[in-house]
């Protein structure tokens, strides 16, 4: 049966009015729940302070771990990029022999690229590296001929697997072309150093994650207890609410709002504490060749998403622990 | 308005029934007094009516709502149709008189403007004009009970359950409360009153239902207290 939208009797508009009224009631209820939650928060200020403090420490640990993980990751990647190995060639090696060596090397899956450095280039590089050192420059200028050997500079994708190249580098073909007085040399940071840094990074990361989990559990327990005590303190009020017909969400809502508030305030405090320290201290870490720029740059450029992320983590901890407390202790 | 058909309630297993095949019919707009010694089953009966407890067997229909088909989530809506007053008032100590009464409206999402319209009328009805801003601890027992009654009736329930409302009051204040309940009853609300007060039962000359050992032992149209 078709009925005009605003037909006689106005049943449709009455219905929409009812819907609007229902929405407005829900909205008013939501605001009241938030209001009650805020009241609860300020009423037991001691418990609230303790809960917020523990949550702040938790979020600081989580935040610091995340930042440290990024910085270590960037540093190790950068160190790996820097590593290369040089093979010094005899002066007698012909261009054909050299090209054959280069193409052999390039066939190795580990090898990222190979660069030929001629004797002249090698001399220039030496001059460039020592341009402050007048003694050496003077010595260079009086030299007759060019004592610097030509070399192949090899970069690999994973420096920890450098020994995979040993077989090739020790083959007769390579032995014949290499300058017997100079062993293949690794420049940049050595494999051992990279391994060591890698182990420290992994250890730090694991410690951070374990500390983070412990801190999250502790703050959840404390919030759980805080909400439990809040429920206990207000059991009369809860009973009255029940008996005069408040529904579940109206009774439970304020406790969840309260716990969420702990998370939000703690997140803001953690950000306020961590941000200045991280931005100011990044420079002194950079002195030790630690790559902080991408991480600190991100923190500097996107403060809002970072803070929102922290707030969400804090709120999630609050909501989960209060829901647990309510489920266990709030009979409706 | 209230219909109980062979209602039995047993707490736990093999225990003696708190209510044993109780059948009752209360008409709209009646004023009914429920008497009985402690442990007779009065409290159980009231808890069944407010759906705090469910019957072990039997049928309960209140205001057209069949409790068998009542879903858990609709219980709050049912309770909004039944006003309840307690012996110990159960007011919220941190809230003023006005706020305590408004609380019953707040839970159903009424706007502040609606509250400001409705609450003063009820305050006038129960005779507490001028006390709106006082806190429960500043009130006498009689006044506190009137606040509780105001809170129970502010949503215009069809039924008002008063569970020993005069239990903590001296005789003069008790009578004030009873007169107030009669007034509310005249305005069209069914009132169910439980009391131990012999004087009130005998002088009111209303329907009296006596419960003993979980059974209705007498139901008189113009009853008196049976010792």
Can you describe this structure?
The complex is a heterodimer of chains A (332) and B (227). Chain A is of the alpha+beta class. Chain A has 2 domains: 29-78 and 194-329, no CATH class; 84-187, Alpha-Beta Plaits (2-Layer Sandwich), CATH 3.30.70. Chain A contains 12 helices and 4 strands, in the order H-H-E-H-E-H-H-E-H-H-E-H-H-H-H-H. Chain A has helices at 11-43, 45-82, 95-106, 119-129, 134-142, 166-169, 172-177, 191-233, 235-243, 248-286, 293-301, 303-329, and strands at residues 84-88, 111-117, 151-156, 185-187. In chain A, strands 2-3-1-4 form a 4-stranded antiparallel β-sheet. In chain A, helix 1 crosses helix 10, helix 2 crosses helix 10 (248-286) and helix 10 packs across helix 11 (293-301). In chain B, the strands form 2 sheets. In chain B, strands 6-7-8-3-9-10 form a 6-stranded mixed β-sheet, sandwiched between helices. The model of chain B has no long low-confidence stretch (mean pLDDT 90). The two termini of chain B are 29 Å apart. Chain B has a domain at 2-81 and 157-220: Rossmann fold (3-Layer(aba) Sandwich). The A-B interface holds A 24-29, 32, 236-237, 239-248, 250 and B 50, 52, 73, 76-80, 84, 90, 92, 103-104, 106-111, 151-152. Chain B: Part of the ABC transporter FtsEX involved in cellular division. Chain B: Homodimer. Forms a membrane-associated complex with FtsX. Chain B: This is Cell division ATP-binding protein FtsE. Chain B: It is a peripheral membrane protein.
Could you name the key traits of this structure?
heterodimer; A: 332 residues; alpha+beta; Alpha-Beta Plaits; 2 domains; four-stranded antiparallel β-sheet; 12 helices; 4 strands; 6% strand; disordered N terminus; B: 227 residues; alpha/beta; Rossmann fold; six-stranded mixed β-sheet; ABC_transporter-like_ATP-bd (chain B); ABC_transpr_LolD-like (chain B)
């Amino acid at each position: 049966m078709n009925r005009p939208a605003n037909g006689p009797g106005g049943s449709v508009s009455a219905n929409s009015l009812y819907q609007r009224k229902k929405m407005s009631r829900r909205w008013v209820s939501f605001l009241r729940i938030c209001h009650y939650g805020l009241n609860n928060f300020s009423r037991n200020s001691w418990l609230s302070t303790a809960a917020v403090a523990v949550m702040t420490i938790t979020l600081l640990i989580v935040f610091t771990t995340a930042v440290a993980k990024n910085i270590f990751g960037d540093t190790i990647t950068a160190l790996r990029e820097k590593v290369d190995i040089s093979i010094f060639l005899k002066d007698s090696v012909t261009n054909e022999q050299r090209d054959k060596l280069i193409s052999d090397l390039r066939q190795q899956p580990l090898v990222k690229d190979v660069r030929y450095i001629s004797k002249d280039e090698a001399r220039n590089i030496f001059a460039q590296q020592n341009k402050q050192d007048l003694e050496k420059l003077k010595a260079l200028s009086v030299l007759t001929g060019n004592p610097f050997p030509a070399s192949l500079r090899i970069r690999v994708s994973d420096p920890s697997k450098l020994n995979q190249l040993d077989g090739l580098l020790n083959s007769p073909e390579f032995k014949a072309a290499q300058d017997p007085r100079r062993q293949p040399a690794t420049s940049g940071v050595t494999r051992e150093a990279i391994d060591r840094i890698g182990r420290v990074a992994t250890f730090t990361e694991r410690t951070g994650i374990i500390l983070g989990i412990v801190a999250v559990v502790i703050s959840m327990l404390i919030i759980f207890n805080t909400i439990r005590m809040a429920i206990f303190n207000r059991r009369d009020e809860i009973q009255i609410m029940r008996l005069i017909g408040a529904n579940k969400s109206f009774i439970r809502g304020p406790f969840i709002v309260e716990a969420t508030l702990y998370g939000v305030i703690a997140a803001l405090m953690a950000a306020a504490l961590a941000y200045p320290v991280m931005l100011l201290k990044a420079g002194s870490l950079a002195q030790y060749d630690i790559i902080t720029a991408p991480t600190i740059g991100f923190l500097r450029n996107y403060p809002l998403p970072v803070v929102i992320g922290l707030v969400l983590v804090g709120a999630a901890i609050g909501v989960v622990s209060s829901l647990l407390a309510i489920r266990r202790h709030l009979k409706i | 308005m209230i219909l109980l058909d062979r209602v039995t309630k047993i707490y736990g297993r093999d225990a003696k029934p708190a209510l044993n095949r109780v059948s009752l019919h209360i008409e709209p707009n009646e004023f009914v007094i429920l008497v009985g010694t402690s442990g007779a089953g009065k409290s159980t009966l009231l808890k069944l009516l407010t759906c705090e407890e469910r019957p072990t067997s039997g049928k309960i229909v209140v205001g057209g709502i069949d409790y068998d088909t009542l879903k858990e989530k609709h219980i709050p809506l049912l309770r909004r149709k039944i006003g309840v007053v307690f012996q110990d008032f159960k007011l919220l100590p941190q809230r003023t008189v006005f706020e305590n009464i408004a609380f019953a409206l707040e839970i159903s999402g009424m706007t502040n403007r609606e509250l400001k319209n409705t609450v003063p009328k009820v305050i006038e009805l129960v005779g507490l004009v001028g006390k709106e801003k006082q806190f429960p601890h500043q009130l006498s027992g009689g006044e506190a009970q009137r606040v509780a009654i105001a809170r129970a009736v502010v949503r215009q329930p069809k039924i008002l359950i008063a569970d020993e409302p005069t239990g903590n009051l001296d005789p003069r204040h008790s009578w004030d409360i009873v007169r107030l309940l009669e007034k509310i009853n005249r305005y069209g609300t069914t009132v169910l009153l439980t009391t131990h007060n012999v004087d009130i039962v005998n002088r009111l000359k209303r329907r009296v239902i006596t419960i003993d050992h979980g059974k209705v032992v007498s139901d008189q149209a113009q009853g008196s207290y049976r010792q």
